[in-house]
Design brief:
145 residues; alpha+beta; 5-stranded antiparallel beta sheet; 3-stranded antiparallel beta sheet; 2 helices
């Protein structure tokens, strides 16, 4: 068995981590900027995560919140927010200036569906991105605030 030098081992860690399937690791809070973490806490703080769902009825949500290049939130009223951790990174999503064009079939957006970004001023199409599962976050029963 060959021994790895510390320098070689340190160089291999990011390479090996990039080989993991998308969405295989839990989202890491340290990847968020302080502003993004604050926004996520503001929207999900005090709420309890439920079982993930594959699809979300588009007509039931009333607000899309871009947290980062890999996290979207969909608000359904005051007590329910769905978190979507995209299957991979979507460069430029967090800027919130590009238009999200969702490729949707029917009245639902589902895990595995695609969307792409379009530059608002030039009309140039940006990256294609893929939705993950939608995790509902609700206020606990009896919590009015």
């Amino acid at each position: 068995m060959t021994k790895l030098t510390p320098l070689l081992a340190a160089a291999l860690v990011p390479l090996l981590a990039s080989c993991a399937p998308a969405g295989s690791a839990a989202p890491s809070a340290e990847a968020l900027t302080p502003r993004q973490a604050q926004l996520l806490d503001k929207q999900l703080g005090g709420k309890v995560a439920g079982a993930p769902v594959k699809c979300l009825a588009s007509y039931r949500t009333n607000e899309t919140i871009r947290v980062s290049d890999s996290i979207l939130l969909y608000r359904e009223g005051g007590n329910l927010v769905y978190r979507n951790d995209l299957k991979g990174n979507c460069p430029g999503l967090a800027r919130d200036s590009d238009i999200m064009v969702v490729r949707q079939f029917g009245s639902q957006t589902c895990s595995g569906d695609f969307f792409h970004l379009v530059d608002r001023s030039s009309g140039i199409r940006g990256p294609t991105c893929v939705f993950g599962e939608f995790v509902p976050y609700r206020k606990p029963a009896g919590d009015e605030g």
